[in-house]
Amino acid sequence: MKIGIIQTAPNNCAALDKIAKKHPGLEIVHYVDGCLWEHFEAAGNTVNDKVNEILAGDFNKLIDAGCGSIGLLCNQIKGGIEKVQESVALPILVYDDVLARRAVAVTPEGGEIAVAAMNTAALGPTKLAVEFAARQVGKNIEVEPVCVEAAKNCLAETGSTELADQYFERWLRTNQQKYSAFLLPQVPLTRLMPRLRDMATPVFDSMEPFVDELAKM
Fold first, then answer.
1. What pLDDT does residue 207 have?
2. Where in the chain is the domain with CATH 3.40.50.1860?
3. How would you label 55-73 residue by residue, b for 16+ Cβ within 10 Å and e otherwise?
4. Distances from the Cα of 212 to the Cαs of 22, 58, 116, 204, in angstroms?
5. pTM of the entire structure?
6. pLDDT in tens, 74-123
């Protein structure tokens, strides 16, 4: 089976392919389209008709290439996804919608979910995704977007992802009693997952649940 994933940069392809190996016979068709990001930035970091037009065309190319399911691995350009869907025959899966549903499922009524990253860009869209998922199932859940400043500053000052990851992991472990689940919408933070699987609080990264769900569609 082929699944098609649209990204705006190629740096996550290898990690996605590694996850795909857990599903026998699964092949990922990577569609990296930097034009999407260029138009997004040119429009003042907003999704406009041009972004939607390009995105719809990209998804249809994936369908023409034989993909049985399709998804988007960039939540900042998903603002017009309902409009895009009107021009695309297959349902479009956005990665942080998957994370949101899974986190809401394990969170009790009145619980709190942390959406955590090393920058602020991905936090807002994922917070909205969690709030929407909670409304869909009638749960009253608090959502807190958190930019882990110690990790962010470490990365800016040293350029070391290893050191920044240590700060980020420390924050997660220190705060795990406060939250029912953690969401990591910043895609590269998937690299932390092997170190976090022993945590009592569920942690949902951006890639593995996304690929799993695409493989089931």
1. 86
2. 2-94+209-216
3. bbebbbbbeeeebebbbbb
4. 9, 22, 22, 12
5. 0.87
6. 888 888 899 999 999 999 999 989 999 999 999 999 999 999 999 998 89
- Pairing mode, strands 69-72 and 2-7: parallel
pLDDT score recorded for residue 63: 97
Look up the CATH architecture of domain 2-94+209-216: 3-Layer(aba) Sandwich (3.40)
Between strands 27-32 and 142-147, the pairing is unpaired
**Residue 66 near residue 2, CB atoms below 8 Å:** yes
Domain 96-205 classification at class level? alpha beta
Q: Could you write out the three-class secondary structure of the chain?
A: CEEEEEECCHHHHHHHHHHHCCCCCCEEEEEECHHHHHHHHHCCCCCCHHHHHHHHHHHHHHHHCCCCEEEECCHHHCCCHHHHHCCCCCCEEEHHHHHHHHHHHHCCCCCEEEEEECCCCCHHHHHHHHHHHHHHCCCCCEEEEEECHHHHHHHHHHCCHHHHHHHHHHHHHHHCCCCCEEECCCHHHHHHHHHHCCCCCCEECCCHHHHHHHHHC
- Interacting residues of 18 by C-beta distance below 8 A, sequence separation 6+: none
pLDDT of 177 over the 90 cut? yes
